[in-house]
Write a structure and sequence with these properties.
By secondary structure, the chain is α/β, with parallel strands linked by helices. It has helices at residues 6-15, 155-163, 202-212, 227-237, 257-263, 298-316, 369-373; strands at residues 22-26, 39-40, 50-51, 55-58, 68-76, 90-94, 106-109, 113-115, 120-123, 133-134, 145-147, 168-172, 177-182, 186-187, 198-199, 218-223, 242-246, 267-270, 275-276, 282-285, 290-294, 323-324, 326-331, 342-352, 355-360, 377-381, 393-398, 404-405. The structure holds adenosine monophosphate and magnesium ion.
Length: 412
Amino acid sequence: MEYLSVTKAQQCVLESVVVLGAESVKLEHSLGRVLAEDVRANRDLPPYDVSSMDGYALRSADLKNVPATLAIIEDIRAGDMPDKTVQAGQCARIMTGAPVPQGADAVIRVEDTQTSSDSSVQINAAVKPGNDIRLRGEGMRNGEVVLRAGTEITPGVTGVLATVKCAQLQVYRRPRVAILSTGNELEDMDEPVDPNKIPNSNSYALMAQVQALGIGPDLLGIARDDPAELEEYLQRGLRFDVLLVSGGTSVGVHDYVRPIVESLGVQMKFWRVAMKPGHPVAFGITAHTRFFGLPGNPVSSMVCFEEFVAPALRRMMGHARLYRRTIAARLTHNVKHQPGRTEFVRVTLAKEQGGYAATSTGAQGSGMLLSMARADGLMVVPADSTGVAAGSMVTVQLLDGTVFQDDAGFRE
Ligand code: AMP
Ligand code: MG
């Protein structure tokens, strides 16, 4: 099999995942989820013409010559219902959000007035009809769709849902994700420190990456490089919507993961991608499960998660924007590159005049997890590049944040 480009591999993954079904959640538990139904307004808002200022409701025609003195006929607070009609030469004191009384066609803010008594006010400026009035239904109209299915629930969306009194809503289900690490050399969190072993960091880094997308994964632990034990663990993992396996997908004689998942019914879509770090990464499907065989090297595992798993999980949850945000940045030093594979260099970003400066986090070995821990983003070096000179503008994929974009946003 050929090496796939990152873009082709991303396409292949996305063609193989579908949006999951819907479930009902309470508004207070819906942040970050995606609406699975259209939501309509259940009333006009504002329900009547209201003042957008603290001031006086009046007839704009009374202000042909200013200053003008008007008689105050009543005091209208938000929540009050005015019962008097404003006649020529009259006005009503009005608060923000209070209904505009009959007869008045404008509001003047208190700052443009002067009061000498409780019964009259001097108006110092002229206003046009409609001034500082928010019209009935200006915010939303009864029956209109205010939020479409597919909308991500941000705090602003939560406000709109509360406005239309949507206490319970339909959102797309989150995938059930299992994480399995493999390798005889691994030592788990609860085991005593053995200087000859390698601490299992991948299960936890992947767990955090999954959690960052709003999903609580299941950790299946560590399977030894033993076909019988692996088969048992993999069988369990294949009951989930998504199975992430770290390690054992390479071509070493003890890399059993691929043949075993195939024997368990996984149809492999790819297992070679022209990227660095990241090789070897495998992807396959069954009727119900998406299987990702991630490289054991800790940085590779995390980078492959970002490029392939994160967009897939977001699609399953109904998001339209699947990819991490990219920005342009100025590279502060030379970066060497051999043509062949797309490289993801871990960088920090610093704000500078006119944009951002990107600087490598240091040694970039695929086992050097600190390079990832320090990174703000992944600088993408196109596969055909022969190196990037200091001062060049580069594309950096951000590793953090809740705002995503429509496409991968980089050239390979
Ligand atoms: P593999 O892909 O199984 O050949 O593993 C490649 C390298 O990644 C080896 O040096 C492993 O020790 C390391 N590695 C594999 N799994 C993990 C893990 N769960 N946590 C940390 N390092 C790992
Ligand atoms: Mg291994």
